[in-house]
Specification:
The complex is a heterodimer of chains A (174) and B (133). Chain A is an alpha+beta fold and 174 residues long. Helices cover 31% and strands 32% of the residues of chain A. Chain A is globular and about 45 Å long. The chains are: A alpha+beta (174), B mainly alpha (133).
């Protein structure tokens, strides 16, 4: 997997600091790519999902489980063996089409990494080809972040509600 | 700091969309809280509501939209309010005020005109300025 930067996507919300990932040579983060693309297709659904993230999760409740569908994946390559949980952010509303993949850092409700996502076009997410690709990609990002948390390359700054590199820097390359 | 893309979309988001999402989130969280507090499983709730468990799963999983009727059934079974609508009594306020004024006659050009007579003049006609003490 190529190098990517873990960068702040939003730290203005009252209860959660949202991170995103950006490929080293990319001009946009994966989450910005998702929102910009989807906004051109279906502005209403995109606005709804954004409001869920910034208003409901970021301001009202924090990243509680009620708003995440969870997919658990074993991380077999890691010593010690751990589990990383990639969640899917969606509004639990009939036929809501958008899915955005996310990782709650150490299952906390105040630190979330947002990845990319897509539209659910099939009966299941696995049948929505582009969505499935983004899910696989999100799992790879999540594994690498989880590994960095375990080996100390990333540390949680509790007071500032943010992540830092092992040397205290805000810039995190993985 | 907020992503510029996010801020732009948020700025374009109609107020009603944000209100809807927040209220919907409130309802989802409230129902899940009550289920946990009461220790109901979805099957138990389905039995109480005389519905199939798959139907309850769809309600709570978001595959069915909540209606006022379905929320009322849930409130009845869970025994607590899910939606609270504030009630206000309507009222009227009657304002009574009195103004005490002394109206004086004004003398000009050797002619005396009662003040109330002057008020009846057309606006376009220059009129003596009433003096109110």
């Amino acid at each position: 997997m190529s190098t990517f930067e873990l960068e702040i996507w939003d730290d203005e919300a009252e209860k959660v600091t949202f991170y995103t990932v950006r490929w080293e040579d990319a001009s946009q983060s994966e989450t910005d790519k998702f929102f910009e693309t989807q906004n051109n297709i279906d502005a209403n659904a995109t606005q709804t999902l954004l409001s869920l993230i910034l208003d409901t999760i970021g301001t009202d409740y924090g990243a509680i489980g009620d708003f995440f569908n969870r997919f658990e994946e074993n991380v077999t390559a890691l010593p010690p063996q751990g589990r990383v949980v990639v969640g899917e952010l969606m509004l639990r509303y009939p036929n809501f089409p958008l899915r955005l993949y996310a990782l709650r850092i150490k299952n906390r409700e105040d630190l979330v990494v947002l990845f990319n996502g897509g539209r659910k076009t099939g009966g299941t997410n696995m049948e929505s080809e582009s969505l499935n690709m983004k899910f696989i990609e999100a799992k790879e990002f999540a594994k690498k972040i989880d590994q960095a948390l375990q080996d100390g390359s990333i540390v949680i700054d509790e007071e500032a509600r943010m992540l830092r590199s092992y040397n205290g820097s805000k810039e995190i390359m993985l | 700091m907020r992503s510029k893309v996010a801020q732009k979309i948020l700025d374009e988001t109609p107020k009603d969309v944000r209100i809807f999402v927040r209220k919907y989130g409130d309802i989802v969280v409230r129902i899940n809280q009550l289920l946990r507090e009461k220790g109901f499983t979805q099957k138990e709730l389905a039995d109480k509501l005389e519905k199939r468990p798959s139907e309850i799963s769809k309600w709570l999983g978001g595959e069915h939209n909540f209606t006022l009727r379905s929320l009322s059934k849930l409130e009845a079974e869970l025994g607590e309010e899910i939606i609270y609508v504030p009630k206000r009594e309507s009222f009227h306020v009657q304002v009574t005020a009195s103004i005490k004024a002394t109206v004086k006659r004004r003398r000009y050009a050797g002619n005396q005109i009662e003040f109330d007579h002057a008020l009846k003049r057309k606006e376009s006609t220059p009129s003596p300025i009433p003096m109110i003490a």
